[in-house]
Every structure is written in structure tokens, then in C-alpha cells.
Amino acid sequence: MVRPSYCKGEIKMTTSTNHYQISQHILTCKEEFTSIPLPLFLSKIRAGFPSPADDHLDKTLDLNDLMIKNPPSTFFVKVEGDSMTGIGMFPGDLLVIDRSREPSDGKIIIAALDGELTVKRIKKLPNNLIRLDAENKNYSSITVSADQDFTVWGVVTGVIRSL
């Protein structure tokens, strides 16, 4: 399950089920990104004996350039739950989502399924069926049936984690 953030829209939480209901399927996301160039050291860092690094400063790095390829279609969500820990998505991680990318087979997506937001790997099956796979053996796959309300919100393009 994911918690929306950094976008404006009508998403509200029901207190009885602890699930998100979508009352408006289009979010308006912040399109203005502040550029903050940060130092980038091109030499590799050893995880053993320390080495002076000031001599290796080569250029700057803007995290927006690294993480956001299409700003107008990009938004962020915060992970809740542990269904995707097998590929390194943990509770509290911030996911970078690009709505302009095609949700092709095998991609990690954010989807609304019957009013609940979820992050899963999409698998396209014969007969236009879709399966949503968790990356944790404690969770079963979900086959989306024709009578379910299903919308792909975007493709996950990155994970940001604080230590």
C-alpha cells in the first residue's frame, strides 16, 4: 500500500477500512523543481580504510536530474507495508513515479484497485488479463478481473531511502 504525497488531488482516507478511496483519478503534481547542484565525487568510495576525498571532486550532481526524467508527469509516494521488500522497497521509502512511462510487462507500478492504492509488479497474461505480483513470499498475487475497478497511476522509476 502507498500513501500519496507531494501532489494535489482528491484522495481521502476512510476511517472504517483504513484504505484510500479515490474521489478524483487525476492528480495535479508540482511541476516546478528547484535545482540544487550538490558535489559529486567520481571516484569510488571504499567501505574499508578511509581515504582523503577532496582531491576527487569532479563536478556537481542535481538529484532532480538523476531521479526525475519528466517533471510534469512525475510524483512521489511513500511506501506503507512490506509486500515489496524483496526488491528493496521498505516502509517509509519514497518512490519516484512517472505517469508518462508505459506500464509494460514486468514493471513496478502504482495502481488503484477497487479504490485502494497499491505498488506491485505488473504481469500481462493471455486474454488481456493482468496479474499484480508482490515481491514478498508472504503475499499472494492478485489477478485483476474484468469487474474490478483498475487504473495504473504510473511506473516506479526510483526509490529514495533515508538511513
Describe this structure in words.
- This protein has one helix at 63-67; strands at residues 2-5, 7-8, 11-13, 20-22, 28-29, 37-41, 57-62, 74-79, 94-98, 108-113, 116-125, 129-133, 142-144, 150-160.
- It is mostly beta strands and 163 residues long.
- The strands form 4 sheets. An 8-stranded antiparallel β-sheet has the order 1-8-9-14-10-11-12-13, with no helix packed on it.
- It is globular and about 55 Å long.
- The model is unreliable at 1-32 (pLDDT under 50).
Strand order of the largest sheet: 1-8-9-14-10-11-12-13
Unreliable runs: 1-32
Radius of gyration: 19 Å
For the record, the CATH architecture stands as Ribbon
Percentage of residues in helical conformation: under 10%
Summarize the structure.
The chain has 163 residues and is mainly beta. It contains 1 helix and 14 strands; from the N terminus they run E-E-E-E-E-E-E-H-E-E-E-E-E-E-E. The two termini are 21 Å apart.
How would the blueprint of this fold be written?
Layout: E1 2-5, E2 7-8, E3 11-13, E4 20-22, E5 28-29, E6 37-41, E7 57-62, H1 63-67, E8 74-79, E9 94-98, E10 108-113, E11 116-125, E12 129-133, E13 142-144, E14 150-160
Entry keywords:
two-stranded antiparallel sheet, 163 residues, Umud Fragment, subunit A, 1 helix
